[in-house]
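Batch manifest, entry 17 of 40.
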Amino acid sequence: MTILVTGGAGFIGSHLVEKLLSRNHEVVCLDNFDTFYDPRIKRENIRRALAHKSYTLIEGDIRDAISLQHCFDREKIDVVVHLAASAGVRPSIQQPELYYDVNVIGTLRLLEAMRHSRVKKLVFGSSSSVYGNSPKVPFSESDPVDNPISPYAATKKAGELLCHTYHHLYDLDVFCLRFFTAYGPRQRPEMAIHKFAKSIMDGEPITMYGDGSTKRDYTFVDDILQGVLASIQKLQGYEIINLGESKTISLRHLISLLEEKIGKKAVIQQLPEQAGDVRLTNADISKARRIIGYNPKVTIEDGLSTFVQWFSDGRRTR
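Output type: structure tokens
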């Protein structure tokens, strides 16, 4: 089976690529190595994959119809895993047009390329952000998500809608996976756990927005990968599926766990809550268990230990 992974040099994408290669799949990675964060980090992410005979890297942008068609013409793609996106809630408020262009127009162009090439199977990386400040907890796939509170969330919901349209019109099999705050080795440097760990180790202040009571359902990358890989095997029809740990942890507790793992106290600078940030995320994963056999296994304590070890090792080798 040949699998195209868009955004395949990023955090989740590069881990997925390695898992797919270990399972003897042919893998095509499409990534534009944008400058949202240092492209050298992405280059390092794929260093091992580049040496694999079943790996093909195409440097291109999902908004570029020519690059997309090149992927499908050059390789016989069986399944697409679409992870390429402009990510992050707060940056989307500053650059809403960019987020719309990449996440909506880019997804539309990918779907068009699939249609023209008669590729029928897609796993789409969506986000728990689509739930906004939903009063119902835990968040279920059947809940209404008509009130996004950031441009990022709106673009992810738009992507789900486009996927359903192409499923309806052209019989594509699509699973939209709503990721709940993925973390782990290779996590993007602007994300909270990565940023906090660096600040604590360097003795620099941590910026904590609000009083630390906001809660997230943090999901270790290995559990996310378990859900993606199972979705590739089970792809049929159109489904929206939550991938989370189904437990929540407050921001203040997260910081205290990082202090414990690193062995240093954090210097906390408290600022007001940020526009676009949700107060709570919490996944109902009963549908994921039923449809794809999803079973998250990594606790926040073990996941943070693994992350801190990876981060510390990286600092020693630089």
